[in-house]
Amino acid sequence: MVKQTLSVMTLLLLLFFILREVEGDERLDEVKLFVFGDSYVDTGNSVNSISYKPPSGITFPGTPAGRFSDGCVLTDYIASYLKIKSPTPYVFRNSSEQQHGINFAHGGTGIFNTLADGPNMTVQIDSFEKLIQQKIYTKADLESSVALVNAAGNDYATFLQRKQGSIQNIQAFTTSLIQQMSLNLRRLHSLGINKIAVGLLEPIGCMPLITMATSYDKCLEPFNFISQNHSQMLLQTVQELNKELGKPVFVTLDLYNSFLSVLATMQKSRSEDPTLMNPLQPCCEGVSMEYYCGSVDERGKKKYGLCQKPEVSFFWEGVHLSQNGWYRVYTMLYSSLLNLNQTKL
Ligand SMILES: *[C@@H]1O[C@H](CO)[C@@H](O)[C@H](O)[C@H]1NC(C)=O
Ligand SMILES: *[C@@H]1O[C@H](CO)[C@@H](O)[C@H](O)[C@H]1NC(C)=O
Ligand SMILES: *[C@@H]1O[C@H](CO)[C@@H](O)[C@H](O)[C@H]1NC(C)=O
Ligand SMILES: *[C@@H]1O[C@H](CO)[C@@H](O)[C@H](O)[C@H]1NC(C)=O
């Protein structure tokens, strides 16, 4: 009897040590997330922008903290999917922990240089390469890492601004964007990352900045054709890259169809309950045309208004999603994210 109890205890003790070991290993081999691109995935690199001014961050973390939203953005949800903390923005790399990866994304930037000041994606990848050269991450770290890449929206904004809204020759521009993106994706893989999630282009014709012209009544199809063509071409390029590599390194995140399907669902709910907010209307707006979300006058008085319930909005302001918007898009992307699984997840 005594002998039996003892052996049960030994077994339990053994189990305890085995479990602890597994847990310890997992912590060491934790996946890291490296992020490249624009404001849809930036979590704090744009230090002199509206992302650090009220009312940004009112939902999360409660004060402005560098996100172009009232709360979490796509990066935060993907990090939570990977069961890690959202990676440190590159600008804070020396003062914060780096074991969850680094976020190089910068609001307003693109694949090429844009009207905004900030590192284009090539320069962001250069910064990543420098960290690798400094041996901050090992080869094994990189092999079990995930990269998240999202850009092109600001490239099109720059193109349209330069051409005063004309979409003539836009197909040639799409082709050159995809070519550069393809080079960037190959480069990230050659730096050692084996899982790379690439955002397709959101329907730019649905952005409040554009739909304002229809009093937020409907998306403008000619602009959505730009997104459709871009997404189609990017998807094809990524499929060819995977084929060439003989393994599914690249995973596309279909922002185009997920935005549209969330908007359609929200429109439908509203047709059943007219007290709900129009999902094409932004939560935060300037009080008149000359003001924008976050504007203050010379005496510091607010010149913008907020919706009653940011938590039921889709758009935060003219071009960005609210936390609710991102959460709902993330749930639509979930089945694609399953393809990011590594042995470590
Ligand atoms: C961070 O540290 C590295 C070396 O440890 C140094 O070269 C770099 O200038 C520092 N960057 C910042 C922003 O302080
Ligand atoms: C990225 O920015 C750098 C610095 O401005 C510039 O030299 C380079 O040509 C840009 N790359 C692309 C692909 O536009
Ligand atoms: C999209 O692609 C189609 C077919 O290739 C083309 O006819 C159309 O002009 C393109 N539209 C835009 C906005 O790029
Ligand atoms: C990831 O999950 C999918 C679906 O569950 C599975 O088919 C695939 O083999 C998994 N890949 C890896 C690398 O574990």
UniProtKB/TrEMBL annotation:
Keywords: Hydrolase, Lipid degradation, Lipid metabolism, Signal
Pfam families per the UniProt record, alphabetical: Lipase_GDSL (PF00657)
Secretion signal, residue range per the UniProt entry: 1-24
Top-level taxon of the source organism: Eukaryota
MF term (GO), any: hydrolase activity, acting on ester bonds
InterPro entries: GDSL, SGNH_hydro_sf
GO terms classed as biological process: lipid catabolic process
Family, as annotated: Belongs to the 'GDSL' lipolytic enzyme family.
Protein name: GDSL esterase/lipase
Source organism (scientific name): Phaseolus vulgaris
